[in-house]
Amino acid sequence: MFCPKCGKEINDDALVCVNCGCSVKKEPEKSQEYDEPKTGIGVLLGLFLGVIGLIIGICIYPEGTVARKTFIKAWGITFGVTAAVAVILIPIIYYVAMTAITYI
């Protein structure tokens, strides 16, 4: 092995160059460890926040008013679409993430 600073030949096991004192310690290769995607926590948090929004909306609008009925319908549609998209996209995202990790 050769010193990266002075270029002189040194022992392969050396930590520093005996000629110039430059550190030649090799960096250990970093292992790439990945955690499983945490999409389940995100979905549960989204559902929880959606239900909290419904409760707040029901508390804000007086009972029997058109505004309350409209809010509940809009919330139902939005929540339903969000849940449907999540159910469709989560397996796709998981597959893509696991495929990408395999090729890294």
Distinctive features:
104 residues; mainly alpha
What secondary-structure arrangement, pairings included, does this model have?
Elements (H helix, E strand, L loop, with lengths): L38 H22 L5 H38 L1
Helix pairs in contact: 1-2
Describe the structure.
The longest helix has 38 residues, at 66-103. 1% of the residues are buried. The mean pLDDT is 81. The protein has 2 helices and no strands. With 104 residues, the chain is mainly α. It has helices spanning 39-60, 66-103. The two termini are 29 Å apart.
Concise structural overview:
The chain is mainly alpha-helical and 104 residues long. It is built from two helices and no strands.
What's the N-to-C terminus distance? 29 Å
Note the total helix count: 2
Sheet/helix structural class: mainly alpha
Give the total of beta strands. 0
- Give the helices and strands as they follow along the chain: HH
Unreliable stretches, pLDDT < 50, 5 or more residues?
none
| Alpha carbon gyration radius | 29 Å
β-sheet strand percentage: under 5%
Mean pLDDT across the residues is 81
* Main sheet specs: none
Fraction of residues in helix? 55-70%
- Overall geometric form: rod-shaped
